[in-house]
Each structure stands twice: as structure tokens, then as C-alpha cells.
Amino acid sequence: MSRERIEPQSGRAFEMSRGEILRVIDPSGEQVADFIAFARADPGEWLSSGRTFDYNNTIYLTTGHVLYSNRSRAMLTITADTVGRHDFLYTPCSQETFDILYQVEGHHPSCLENLVVNLRPFGIDADRIPTTFNIFMNVEVAADGTLGILPPRSKAGDYLEMRAETDLVVGLTACSAEMSNNYRLKPIEFERRRP
Amino acid sequence: MSRERIEPQSGRAFEMSRGEILRVIDPSGEQVADFIAFARADPGEWLSSGRTFDYNNTIYLTTGHVLYSNRSRAMLTITADTVGRHDFLYTPCSQETFDILYQVEGHHPSCLENLVVNLRPFGIDADRIPTTFNIFMNVEVAADGTLGILPPRSKAGDYLEMRAETDLVVGLTACSAEMSNNYRLKPIEFERRRP
């Protein structure tokens, strides 16, 4: 089993087979990895935050929780998690995020762009990318509904593992948004193993 | 301006033009209406909970908030709201919701089915339906992330108004899930007016 690396502000896409386990590692600490999945047999079936919230009865997913598709099928099960705080509310940062929220001038790398570029060879275009599962992203919801983005709780070497419950195409990034990553943009690593 | 009625456990779809205002009324109280919108020019552009959360910095949307598309464009603005509590976390109830969560035997009417049937003439299929804006649905998020579905806060005659910021195709239901509607399934009414 080899460890692969996603450079800061970049992304990857690859196929997973049913039963395969993906370990997503934060090698430096305080770094978010946006994750999305589609059924390999039909990319019309996609990882759904809304279905996942409904069937797990929580917005914070961790070990033992199942991530569901829009068709209410199990896509992945979280099998290990050394952090315990991830986000499934926000869409991946995009050029417009930086334009609208952060008044950035000109091109800024973004998770959406990195997902689109890497998923294109699998026939998945930008409009098909829904809310991502934002591994290690630390979002608090106040009692009045106000959202706060805090530094990730992950320390160097922390990880989250998921088992594919069906054949998948997945996308994974090292997030590009300064604020989500405590203002240091670091790599993400991952390992894959067959049962 | 005429008032139209959506019978219990059913739905409607229609076009809205930029500037048009839609008033969604709960005539009986404690009844949820699931709402979704697509750009009329290209249904690849859809109402996005994740973008909307990001740009408004809250999960609870009310008067003055703008609802955004996956392409980060303004789709609708909430112009009036006599209730102040709506949900944008959950996907519409579906046959599988009733199978998995409520162990219902056989067919149960659902918001997803009612959206799919009514949006089909506009070329929008089930896999394109993302998380809906669930008007009057009352969802609490506990500090540990646990979700609770409470009776809607809406009383008879309460309403929410939205202005279309671009030409849209929209779907709207009288929600079919017993628990979300305090165990009485009632109609929804709506009015449309041009500026």
C-alpha cells in the first residue's frame, strides 16, 4: 500500500471498488480535504448531504456513519476517524467564493476547479458537483443558525477512513481557501487498500 | 392575482419570470412546502443550499437573504416572511425515506415523487433534484450536531415571499411526511404577482 500526495491547492480523482478503503490523511495538521463521490455505473447517482443528514440524524458524521446517495443507497461507511469534526454544509470553494466573499482580484485556485478538472475524464461536469463532504473542515452552527468557520481540529497525521459500499468515482482536494485552513495551505495524503 | 391551491401530499411546477414574486401560504398552519428552482435558460443551474449557506453565513434564511445557484448567481430573494424558521438541510421526503426511516409498507406519497412528476414536462429528472428549500419546516441543530424535526412554527395564514432574480422553473409541494407536519397533512396555497 503506497501513500499518495495531493499538493497544496490541487486535487485528484480516481475509481474505488466496492469494499476498498480510502484513508485521507492530514500530514501537517489543520488542512481540509473536500471529497465527492459518484456511482461508477451511473454518475447521475451522487453523494447527497441531505439524504445523509436525514438517515444519520446529525450534521456531524464520524465512525460508523453511512454516507448516502441521492437515490438513498449507501455509498460509503466511515470506518475510522481520529478527528471527529468534518463539514457537510458547504459547497467547495470556487472562483466566485473568492470574488464574492473575499474580494480576491483575478484567478484563485479553488476546490471546485480542482474537482472539475480532475473529474472531467470521468464524464462529470461542474453542474453535477453537489455539496462536498469537507473532511477536517470545522464549521460551528450557533443556536441562531449563524455559521462559523474555525481552524480544523486535525493535527499532523490525523486521518479519516471510508469504505466504498459500491463502485465509485471520487474526487478529493487539498482545499484552497485560506480561512478554512487556518491561513496555511498544505498538502493532503491518501492511502487505498483492498479488503 | 388569484390564489392557487396545492392539495395535501401533492405538488406543482411552473415558470417564474425575473421580478415576479411568489407568496407561499400555509392556510391551516403547521404545514411544510418543499421548494426547488432551476434556471429556465439551463436547468444545469440549480438552487444550491451549500452556496446559499456560504454567502449568507447562516442555515436559517429569512427576509433579505438571497438564495444562490450552484453557479453562485442570485436566484431568489426572500422579500417577506411571517414565520422566520425554514429548513435547507434536508432533501425532499422520498419513497425510500418512508421505507428506511418509518418502515412504511408499500407506496407512500412523497415530495420527491411530487416534484419529479411535475418537473418532468420541463425536462428535469429525479437525479437533478438537490436539497430543497423546505418552507415552514422546523429543524433544530443541537450543539453536538444532532438534528430534531419539530412541528412547523407557521400558523394559519402565515407566508413567505420570494422574488425571482432570474427566469426560473420552480417546483413546490404540500409535504407528505407525517412527522414534519405535526401528523396532519394539509394543503399549501400560493399567489404570484408581477412587479
Descriptive notes:
2 copies of one chain form a homodimer. Chain A is mostly beta strands. Chain A has helices at 49-56, 95-102, 111-119, and strands at residues 3-6, 11-16, 21-26, 33-39, 42-46, 66-68, 74-81, 133-135, 138-141, 147-150, 158-164, 168-173, 188-193. Chain A has a 6-stranded antiparallel sheet with strand order 1-13-3-11-7-6. In chain A, β9 (138-141) and β10 form a beta hairpin. The radius of gyration of chain A is 15 Å and the shape is globular.
- Content of β-strand of chain A: 35-45%
Round the mean pLDDT of chain A to the nearest integer and report it.
96
Helix vs. strand class of chain A: mainly beta
> N-to-C SSE series of chain A?
EEEEEHEEHHEEEEEE
According to DSSP, the number of beta strands of chain A is: 13
The CA-CA distance between the termini of chain A, in Å, is 12 Å
Query: Looking at the structure, what is the overall shape of chain A?
Result: globular
Main sheet record of chain A:
6 strands, antiparallel
Greatest interface by residues involved: A-B, 38 and 38 residues
Q: Which regions of chain A have little confidence, pLDDT < 50, spanning 5+ residues?
A: none
Q: Please give the share of residues in helix of chain A.
A: 10-25%
Oligomer: homodimer
Major beta sheet, strand line-up of chain A: 1-13-3-11-7-6
Alpha-carbon Rg of chain A, integer:
15 Å
Helix count from the secondary structure assignment of chain A:
3
Which descriptors would you attach to this protein?
homodimer; 195 residues; mainly beta; six-stranded antiparallel β-sheet; five-stranded antiparallel β-sheet; globular
